[in-house]
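Person: I keep going back and forth on a fold encoding question. Show me how you would write down a chain together with its backbone fold. Please set it down just below, with no commentary around it:
Helper:
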Amino acid sequence: MMRSGLERYFEFSRLGTNWRTEILAGVTTFVTMAYIIFVNPSILSQTGMPAAGVMAATCISAGIASILMGAVARYPIALAPGMGLNAYFTYAVVKGMGVPWQVALGAVFLSGVAFLLLTVAGVREKLIRALPVDLYGAVAAGIGLFIAFIGLRNAGIIMADPATAVKLGDLKNPSALVALAGLVITAALQARQFPLAILTGIAASTGIALVTGVARWNPQWGNLGELGSTFLQLDIAGAMNLGLAEILFVFLFVDLFDNLGTLVGVTKHAGLMPESGELPRVNRVLMADASATMLGALTGTSTVVSYIESTAGIVAGGRSGVTAIVTGLLFLVSLVAAPLVGVVPAAATAPALVLVGAAMMSHTAEVRWGDPLDAIPAFLTIAAIPLTFSIANGLALGFVSFALLRLLSGRGREVSWIVWVLVAAFVARFVLS
């Protein structure tokens, strides 16, 4: 009876899913984003924050936030401290501006409060509705390229170059070889329509990495007691200083539109976005997101966001909130089972990211490429997301070009007033940054 009730609550029948699929999808999502457990502390510790405390905060905030998203909003979207925002927190705010990390955490908390107020007022829901439908497919495809780019970079298959920006990496490097082997294995399994292709590919890649020495067993046992070093260490009073208005704006702006882009891209790829563009329970999604940011600041980490790696679980079949709940539970378990997480190297998860990105490129077919008014904004969105390493920048260029092209072609009345407000905000951000 309980099982039947839960299946009705999570709409298993309508979504065409089951417990086995949802659990495996949750595990897949977790494995592809578990790197944040170790990457986030390595970045934030450069501010002087205790690495052990940040690791505990990362696990707890990601765990509770993902469970909240799955249980309340019922979407297969996992959350964790965001890459990019943690770098901004460290290098721009703390090290660049000399702001104490406690005050920076206070700014993160206040941005979460602002998210919550905007959500209650219905502003964030209006922003989602204002996103031009023609850009939905472009956002999903751009995120796909972004995911693939991250995977290729993490594997060392592509690397930075001062002359050409990027170049082919050293394919004889052991990490690159592990990733390439994993890519072949996972792609072959997908071609055979093996349902556990991504998870099996990650496991096989990890095994190869252990045998070749790319990965090593290095226990780093988590401990709840370690959370105390960052828990409730935020300085909200300091963050309310008017001199931090710019920092608050950046946290608010980037998180808002990164989450908007991720939400649209992930739900679009999962087939959960109706043709009308009216996403069911969208306020619950946004409330969970806002709460997650505040929780992250309270526990001791930078802004918590929806993760584009959630698409890995969706490709594995995840469609309901159970996927996110499983992912969240695994993050909490990671507090005391860190060795099982740390053994999976970036080279092992890279193939999953590349193939998920490839799958998301199918959304380019939804763009009306024959009409410049749709094609140009879509192309700029798709190109800018990976090339600027920012979903928010891709959305910005898409919005601005969408509105300006319609204005210049005499069809400005097709653009809603809220889009024009967003365009003004985007332009101001580019001018003032």
